[in-house]
Amino acid sequence: MKLYLGLYKGEVVSVGSLVCTKDSVGIYDIATKEEMRGKGFGSTMFNFLLQEAKQLKNTYCVLQASPDGINIYKKSGFQVVGQMTVFENRHLFE
């Protein structure tokens, strides 16, 4: 796993990660600080990670998309192949 930070004026404004397996690379955990959203930082991080993934020359590139990010991925040619249900228990750690 490789973790990446996106900096703007010395401040971390976005993050992302690549997870590599034998034949695939996953693009995950892309997030942008709430007050910095809508300024292209998430798209920039995604495009950077996509270029890094292409250099690895794996067979597949996979990702999971939130509703906020799905259009970025579709514009780059990714297709929806399934849906995932996420469960959480916020009270577990109280």
Itemize the secondary structure elements and their pairings.
Elements: E1 2-8, E2 11-20, E3 24-32, H1 41-56, E4 60-63, H2 70-75
Parallel strand pairs: 3-4
Antiparallel strand pairs: 1-2, 2-3
Protein name: GCN5-related N-acetyltransferase
GO molecular function, one term: acyltransferase activity, transferring groups other than amino-acyl groups
Domain N-acetyltransferase: 1-94
Descriptive overview:
- The protein has 94 residues and is of the alpha+beta class.
- It has a single domain, classed as 3-Layer(aba) Sandwich (Aminopeptidase).
- 23% of the residues lie in helices and 32% in strands.
- The chain has two helices and four strands.
- A four-stranded mixed sheet has the order 1-2-3-4, with helices on one face.
- The radius of gyration is 14 Å and the shape is globular.
- It starts with a strand and ends in a 19-residue tail after the last helix.
- The model has no long low-confidence stretch (mean pLDDT 92).
CATH class: Alpha Beta
- Portion of residues in beta strands equals 25-35%
Gap from first CA to last CA:
29 Å
Number of strands: 4
CATH homology-level superfamily = Gcn5-related N-acetyltransferase (GNAT)
What oligomeric state is this? single chain
What is the structural class?
A: alpha+beta
